[in-house]
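Supplementary Note 3. Input sequence used for the single-chain structure prediction.
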Amino acid sequence: MERKQSVWVVDDEPNGFEVIELLLRREGHHLTYFNSGKAILNQLESSLPDVILLDVMMPEIDGIETCRRIKANSNWKPIPIIIVTALDSKEDLARSLAAGADDFLTKPVNGVELRARVRSMLRIKQQYDALQASVNLRRDLSKLVVEDLRQPMSTLLLGSHLLLQSHLEPKDKERAEMVHAAGLEIDGIISGLLRLAKMESGRLVLNRVEVDFNELVEVVVANFP
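The predicted structure, written as discrete structure tokens, is reproduced below.
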């Protein structure tokens, strides 16, 4: 069974939720009501919706500040937020967008416009989730492949190194050197993939070291005659 898409409605006036619930009744969404910005911020710690309809005029934490706090959290930031307000000035629109809101609705809410904007935001969220799943899958597969290659490659490099230390015929030594050089090249590719995986996960630590640019230029020139 396909999961119902969850829509959270935040409004200190219960009538506001009842209107939205009536207008979205036939859409088949799972609607949840919150009466304050503080309530939804607490709930986001344990579960995430597909889209949030957020009223502006609320006590304690207003909708714009609530939006700002949600978008400041990297785990919550992808959730589309539609600001719903009785205010329709350009200044309010600018403040809402500056806080990170993805869309804007004015009261009284028009049913056709509400449904269209919610559908649009849900499509965006679905596309983001699909893209994120693809990125995670690629990262996990890359990590798996790299980890599986690291051990046999280390064995190959050690074996070829030991061969080069033994007494070999010139022809056999040349072949062993080719194997060792190819192993070093593949090991470099594996290390690069590991660095990329760490970079994507935010775990890459950069170590500052001094570099001799004269030596670096000589190496580059030698490799590009």
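Helices lie at 14-23, 37-43, 63-72, 90-98, 111-165, 170-201, 213-223. The beta strands are 6-10, 30-34, 51-55, 81-85, 103-106.
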